[in-house]
Fold LCCL domain-containing protein.
Amino acid sequence: MRYLITPALLIFGTVLAAPAIAQSGKKSPSGAAPVEAPECGRFPGGDVVCSCPAGGVDRSVWGVGPYTGDSDVCTAARHAGVIGADGGVVSLSERPGQSGYEGSTANGVTTSSWGSYGQSFAFASAGGASTLEATGLPRCTKMPAGADRYSCACPADAPLGSVWGNGPYTADSDICTAALHLAYIDAEGGDVHVLRVQGLSSYFGAESNGVTSSGWGAFVSSTTFHWNR
C-alpha cells in the first residue's frame, strides 16, 4: 500500500527536524562555527595548521628551521619557540629540501644534523611572517657539510656564537656572528651568501664591529661571504 505525502505533512516534518539540525551544528556567540585544528602528526606536505598537546614528549628532529620533512612537528615547534610546554596551534608550510641540515639546542630542545633531504617544513611566527617566511631562506647556523655555496637568513639581534678567524673563517664558525664581525650585516640581520674556500694553516682572531673572533690552527676548509649580491 502506498501512502500519499501531502505538502502539509512535509512542512510539519521539516519543522520537527529543524531543532535537531540546529543542535547538531552549534554556533559560537559570534555566529561562526568553532573550528578545532587536528592534532599534529607526520608532516603531510603543503600548508598545515594543527595542534600540539601540552606536555608533549620530545621526538626526533633534524635541522634548525627549516626542518627535514620527517621531523616531529610538535618537537620542532618547541625548538623554534612557536609553542611552549603548554602546547598550542601551529602553522607550518612546506619548503624545498636542503643539501644539509645543522642541529642545535634551543628552548630546551636539541635537534640533530643530517645530510641531504628532499622535503623541509618551516613555521610561521606568532607575530606574522618571520625572516624565514619573508625570504624563503633557512635560518643560518653553520656551513652545511658538503655545500660549496649557501644562502641563509640571520634574524635581528641574533645571539653571538663561536667564530675563528678574521675573514676567511673556519668552516665551523657561526655564520651570523662571522657576518656581523665582517660587517656583512648589522644588528638588524639579513640574508647572507656564504662560500666555502680552501682551509688555512692558521687563523688569527680579532675584534671588529663589536664581535671578537678567536684564533685557531689548521682547519680543513674556510668560509667567506659573497659581496656581489
In short: The helical segments are 7-24, 73-80, 131-135, 175-181. The longest helix spans residues 7-24.
